[in-house]
Amino acid sequence: MSEQDTFSEAEKAPESDAVLEVRGLSAGYGAVTVVRDLDISLRGGEVLAILGPNGAGKTTVMATLAGLLPRLDGEVLVGGKVLPSARPGAANKAGLVLVADDRALFTGLSVKENIQIAHKAGGPDLDATMELFPALKKRLKVSAGAISGGEQQMLAVARALVQRPRVLLIDEMSMGLAPVIVEELLPIVRRIADDTGAVVVLVEQHVHLALEVADEAMVIVHGDVRLTGSATNLAAHPERLEAAYLGETAPV
Q1: Could you list the residue ranges that cross the membrane (predicted)?
Q2: What share of the chain is helix, strand, coil (3-state, %, to 5)?
Q3: Which of 92, 135, 171, 195 is the most buried if burial means most Cβ atoms within 10 Å?
Q4: Each residue's pLDDT expressed in tens, for the chain with a length of 252 residues
């Protein structure tokens, strides 16, 4: 199979319409390249699922997009403007917000305080945020370290939303959570994109659940994009997904 097997022939959005563009991105650590030649173009309200086995480079992509790691090559643009490399503050100011896989909560602060400390002018208020996460409404006065894993993940996403993201990066929303909780959380990703118009890039191990809420998907294996296409088409052809994960030639 070629390095990138393009499964969908759907037209890409014109560059002028793209909220997030990634052009020829290579990323890694020091002189070690982990991800090579990554291209993304997404309009507002679109959800991209980044899939792949452990160690494929998915978290490296997210950290690089967020400015936490320097780009080794390529460009990242939000709203047509190139972001400086390795400057997380500039990325956040441009509207790019990361929900990290460790959630990065202030565990000694209450749920309400975690949300308030992250709030940006123009972002949704507490009441609007609780409409998405009603389970948190009764936990506002409880410390973030004392709530359940599922509630902590809700809080991490809520804290991102009050920053008014143009691009929301969610790295492994399901980390450490029971499948039944993941089934409740992932549809919220779809609602966020639809209601706010934000681009959402989702790294997820629960492949089929991720494809249910995504518009587009890509499979990264050993740092290379092996398969891209619409989430609907990929979900309908699991044999191509399996082949991409295994590095085999996908059946026609």
Answers
A1: none
A2: 35, 25, 35
A3: 171
A4: 444 444 333 334 444 599 999 999 999 999 899 999 999 999 999 999 999 999 999 999 999 999 999 999 999 999 999 999 999 999 999 999 999 999 999 999 999 999 999 999 999 999 999 999 999 999 999 999 999 999 999 999 999 999 999 999 999 999 999 999 999 999 999 999 999 999 999 999 999 999 999 999 999 999 999 999 999 999 999 999 999 998 765 444
For residue 202, what are its two tokens?
Answer: 């989702």
Q: Which residue has the tokens 């191509």?
A: 240
The answer to whether the Cα torsion of 48, 49, 52, 56 is positive or negative is positive
Side chain identity, residue 7: F
- Residue in the block written with tokens 């929303």: 173
Q: What gap in Å lies between CA 169 and CA 157, rounded to an integer?
A: 10
d(CA 1, CA 82): 32
User: From 3.40.630.30, 3.40.50.300, 3.30.420.40, 2.60.40.2550, which CATH number describes the 5-95+167-246 domain?
Assistant: 3.40.50.300
Q: Which residues contact 233 (CB under 8 A, 6 or more apart)?
A: 7, 8
